[in-house]
Amino acid sequence: MHRISTALELTATQVEQVIGLAGLAPSLHNTQPWQFRILPHLIELHYDPARRLPAADPDGRELRLACGAALFNLRVALEGAGVRPVVTLLPHLAHATTLAEVRGGGRPEPRPVAVKLHAAIPQRHSHRAPFRDVPVQPADRHELLLAAQSEQCWPHVVTSGELGALEGLVHRAHQVQQADSRFRAELAAWTGQSTSAVDGVPTDAAGPRPEPQDEWVHRDFSGGLAERPDGVAHESGPLLVVLCTQHESPADELRAGQALENVWLTATSRSLSASMISEVVEVREIRDELRQLLGGTLHPQAMLRIGHGRPTVPAPRRAVGDLLLNGSTPT
Ligand SMILES: Cc1cc2nc3c(=O)[nH]c(=O)nc-3n(C[C@H](O)[C@H](O)[C@H](O)COP(=O)(O)O)c2cc1C
């Protein structure tokens, strides 16, 4: 069991709160593949090699997206605690699990946008159930796109002309994954968790079991259990945003993860809900086809479905002490 250290002129209690908020980030199958080393003058973000998903994510691309999302939460949480975060991305260090380090850059008042995002961190959840059939307003859409761009990410809003082809790609990707016994075993190991589990997706947070006629949500986190009430159909026109990067490096993936979380928290702060549709970017050949569909220049990293959702159940998280790497200096 770790004792929490002080860092960046924050008290141990503040450090615990900041790391707790970082750990509320989204991650594939709720693996929470991040670790933190707390030092007096910096906080290091590491990935946890034991929490990789070799079948769904053989290259660790989505692991870095998740860690990028945790890094974004860490930045917002630090700003909320009065520390301006200065981030260095370090995903290329050979033989190391380090992804980034964050130092203090002064103690200005938090910006109003950071205050809003900070409040949204505990409210953000995956909403896999059908949304209400109400379109996302242009002003909301504008803010969501700005949130992605501010993290050096290009958000592609799927047009009505692209919808049919995209739906076909999502279906095919889903079929490729379902035909892979390793993928199915991995998904089964991380879903249908008991209520006492601290990771994975428990049945009550899974959303309803997808139905054959569903256009977008195909991945079943419910363990086949949670049927949805008769007559509740998926929204007819979700806002689908594909987050793209200019290149395809690990640093781009960390940027995409930060953009993902900025967009998702911005949506949450505006009372919008979101879920991810990842099969289309997980299957390499289909990701290439998606790239061509979107113009062939940028690299698609993640797809979000955004709309007006109904309340959902939060997925669990590990305790802060379990996220700390040995070497975090005790107070
Ligand atoms: C890279 C990445 C890919 C994800 N892909 C999917 C997906 O395809 N379908 C889905 O429903 N959720 C997906 N999620 C969401 C996770 O399942 C979710 O974040 C996790 O279960 C924790 O739940 P929460 O988002 O409610 O906190 C993904 C998350 C990340 C970061």
Structural class: alpha+beta
Please give the domain count.
2
N-end to C-end Cα span: 14 Å
Tally of helical segments: 9
CATH architecture field of the largest domain: 3-Layer(aba) Sandwich
Q: How would you sum up the global shape?
A: globular
Mean pLDDT: 92
Describe this structure in words.
This protein has 331 residues and is an alpha+beta fold. The chain folds into 2 domains: 12-122, NADH Oxidase, CATH 3.40.109; 138-307, NADH Oxidase. Helix content is 35%, strand content 16%. The chain contains 9 helices and 10 strands. It has a 4-stranded antiparallel sheet with strand order 1-2-4-3, with helices on one face. A 4-stranded antiparallel sheet has the order 5-8-10-9, with helices on both faces. It has a two-stranded parallel ribbon with strand order 6-7. Helix 2 packs across helix 3, helix 3 (112-120) packs across helix 7 (250-269) and helix 5 (160-178) packs antiparallel against helix 9 (284-293). The longest helix is centred in the first third of the chain and has 20 residues, at 61-80. The two termini are 14 Å apart. The model has no long low-confidence stretch (mean pLDDT 92). The structure holds flavin mononucleotide (FMN). The site of flavin mononucleotide has 20 residues, from helix 2 and strand 9.
